[in-house]
Specification:
The structure holds 2 protein chains of 2 kinds. Chain A is mainly alpha-helical. Chain A contains 11 helices and 4 strands; from the N terminus they run ααααβββααααβααα. In chain A, a hairpin with a 2-residue loop joins strand 2 and strand 3. The longest helix of chain A is centred in the N-terminal third of the chain and has 31 residues. Chain B is elongated and about 65 Å long. In chain B, strand 9, helix 9 and strand 10 form a beta-alpha-beta unit. The chains are: A mainly alpha, B alpha/beta. The interface between A and B is large, with 39 and 37 residues.
């Protein structure tokens, strides 16, 4: 039983990073009804940019690295918006989708060329702290990652539901034409959505780097897949759904790994995805009609 | 205008016919290198290319290679990116075969080498086998026994079987109290799997260690908590990690967090590289790895310096590429390769036969023995991570 609880707690704590990635996917989908497949790659790209501060000032504190990753994530988010959405006809949904696939590969390859594919040491806070709670051990750094992720989610929800920008974003998400008639600049709101999700992605990338202790281009593909799984399970466009689904997938993944081994782990995660697609296609918090 | 054209034509003709002219003298021998230069194993390709170019430059500065007619030719390197993909590797070897390269050096990944060797002619002079008759001299792909696939395939990679058997034997004397071993393996990577199940585990058991089990993870995993808990529960004296630098670092960091402190940590040959130190120098401190290269002598240091000029790092893989170039020079000269483009296939055959004839070759750490199945029995050392560097711990030979 203790092993089970340990696996769940490890997974749920790590799942906070999946939740952040899932939120990025879901927010863009909610506002623009488009999938940004480059999101996880841009998030990891932001985390790599955070490391640049260590080149300029060796021994810079981890928080400064995270801050740089946060800002770089926002810039990358805006660049992704410009290249994959702003200048591409949105009337053709496949064009934007394929552009983001191209951007994913481009960012990945830029990282590979910039680092020669070598793993980069990533700073963390409290990585030497292990807390004991009733026989369970909890990683101090993962707890911090979890707290930062929760704060980011809270900040995002506050932005969406307590600010004019959030109101405009929700308006564009629900009725883009009506929003435009009310004087909301849809293109500006879309761009801001990418910047906000980019900022969130930068933090998510940095938290992933901090949780592993290293960054490598090998993680962009699995993080993209996990982010999409979380988005679907949580319900496309649902932020609370993405949060819960991220933690759920993290926990399930670790439990499956404990009982069925690493080679079967992803098989069960994908089966979970299909269970949701068949029995609850609108995601965890879907309303009666299947939507949110 | 007409006069000018005539003058240029006359000057060009004179240049061609003048015996001392550069154009008339410049013969070339093309060596095709191929490796992963994109994707997460890009550093292997970058280092191999740098080593190849550096070796070619040294050879050319010394006058080049002597051909059958006594003339000298410059070594020219053409380097291609196989992206560590079997399809790409096969496509590249076909392209090299269709071109004018005398021999191919590569690839990086064993999952490319295995199918690629499969499209070469299996037995020389087998008229019924339409496989490619192209000598391939592998420098990096290390999975055991691959050269057996074709008589056109040769390798200059260390034998992990020999190195790890020797390492566990040495550990028995160095740490007599250590009795048990626990493994960690990247389950979805052919080389890592082979290294744990067929090499490390076997080497440990043959030397009287009790193998308590192994934890598994995947090449792009990011959370190792469960696996390290298994490792902690086993409480083995020795932990052997058969994984590449990224996950090796992830596991070492998790071991540090969970306070897993075995007497000895053994790593995979390929992890004795800059990548591991870049990813987790602090956590890798003390890890022991057998390797066929360390810059311990003048020759190895020189090769490392020359490779660095082409922005490459010297490690056991790239220095095998360096060695291959000098071995090929020796074979070109001993087999009297013509260098004539019309005799290309005959020259390729001479290279194959020359490589097959070799009983020993000169390596950076000493003499390498060649085996009958076209593999190398290379000298090796045990290195350990020490203050952010790989330092020689023991020379078993």
């Amino acid at each position: 039983m203790l092993d089970f609880l340990q696996a769940v707690s490890d997974g749920v704590l790590f799942g906070a990073t999946y939740a952040l990635i899932g939120i990025g996917f879901t927010l863009v989908f909610g506002v623009m009804h488009k999938l940004n497949l480059a999101y996880a790659a841009a998030s990891i790209g932001g985390a790599y940019c955070g490391l640049l501060i260590l080149k300029l000032a060796a021994g810079a504190p981890a928080l400064l690295v995270f801050l740089c990753a946060f800002l770089a994530g926002g810039i990358l988010g805006y660049l992704v918006y410009l290249t994959c959405f702003h200048f591409i006809p949105l009337s053709n949904p496949l064009a934007a989708l394929m552009a983001t696939v191209g951007m994913l590969l481009l960012i990945d390859e830029i990282i590979v060329h910039g680092t020669q594919g070598m793993p980069q040491n990533y700073p963390a806070l409290f990585d030497d702290v292990m807390l004991n709670a009733g026989g369970l051990t909890l990683r101090g750094d993962l707890l911090l990652v979890f707290v930062i992720c929760v704060l980011c989610m809270a900040g995002l929800l506050a932005l969406l539901y307590r600010s004019k920008l959030g109101l405009a974003t929700r308006a564009v998400s629900q009725q883009p034409v009506a929003a435009q008639l009310c004087g909301i600049r849809v293109a500006k709101v879309n761009a801001m959505t990418f910047v906000i999700t980019g900022l969130l992605g930068g933090i998510a990338g940095a938290m992933i780097g901090a949780a592993i202790g290293a960054l490598s281009p090998v993680i962009t593909a699995p993080v993209t897949v996990k982010g999409l799984v979380v988005t679907v399970i949580g319900g496309l466009g649902s932020i609370p759904g993405a949060i819960v689904a991220g933690l759920l997938v993290g926990g399930f993944e670790n439990v499956f790994q404990l009982y069925r081994g690493v080679t079967e782990r992803d098989l069960y995660v994908m089966l979970l995805l299909f269970v949701f697609l068949i029995f609850r296609p609108g995601g965890i918090f879907a309303g009666k009609g299947g939507g949110h | 205008m007409k006069t000018l054209a005539l003058a240029v034509a006359a000057a060009f003709a004179a240049t061609l016919s003048f015996p001392g002219s550069t154009l008339a003298q410049e013969k070339t021998i093309k060596i095709a290198g191929f490796a992963a230069k994109s994707g997460v194993v890009r550093s292997f390709g970058v280092n191999s290319e740098a080593a190849m170019l550096a070796a070619a430059e040294i050879i050319n500065k010394q006058g080049g290679v002597r051909l059958a007619d006594g003339s000298k030719a410059k070594m020219v390197v053409e380097f291609l990116d196989d992206r560590c993909s079997a399809e790409e590797g096969i496509s590249i070897i076909r392209r090299i075969y269709g071109g004018d390269a005398l021999v191919a050096v590569g690839p990086t990944c064993s999952n490319v080498a295995e199918p690629l060797f499969g499209i070469l002619q299996k037995k020389v002079d087998d008229k019924g086998d339409s496989g490619l008759q192209m000598p391939v001299f592998t420098d990096v792909a290390i999975k055991g026994g691959l050269a057996k696939i074709s008589e056109w395939a040769f390798r200059n990679v260390p034998s992990e079987l020999t190195m790890y058997a020797s390492l566990f034997q040495w550990l028995k004397t160095k740490h007599p109290n250590a009795q048990t071993v626990f493994g960690g393996v990247e389950e979805d990577f052919a080389h890592s799997r082979a290294s744990w199940y067929a090499v490390m585990k076997d080497g440990a058991e043959k030397n009287g260690y009790k193998v308590l089990g192994n934890a598994k993870w995947l090449l792009n995993d990011s959370n190792f908590a469960t696996q390290v808990r298994e490792m902690k529960a086993a409480n083995a004296d020795i932990v052997a990690i058969a994984a590449h630098p990224f996950t090796t670092c992830g596991v070492l960091k998790e071991m540090q967090r969970q306070g897993v402190k075995p007497k000895v940590v053994v790593g995979l040959t390929s992890s004795s590289s800059l990548e591991t130190l870049q990813g987790c120098a602090k956590q890798a401190e003390g890890i022991i790895i057998p390797t066929s290269l360390a810059p311990v002598n003048k020759e190895a240091k020189f090769a490392a310096d020359q490779t660095a000029k082409f922005k490459g790092a010297a490690d056991l893989h790239s220095m095998a590429t360096w060695e291959n170039m000098f071995i090929l020079k020796q074979v070109i000269e001993s087999e009297k390769v013509s260098g004539d483009k019309n005799q290309l296939q005959a020259d390729r055959r001479k290279i194959r036969d020359g490589l097959a004839k070799l009983k020993t070759t000169d390596g950076l750490l000493g003499v390498t023995k060649r085996t009958d199945d076209r593999e190398a029995d290379k000298p090796y050392l045990f290195v350990h991570a020490n203050k952010g560097e790989w330092k020689v711990l023991h020379d078993p030979l």
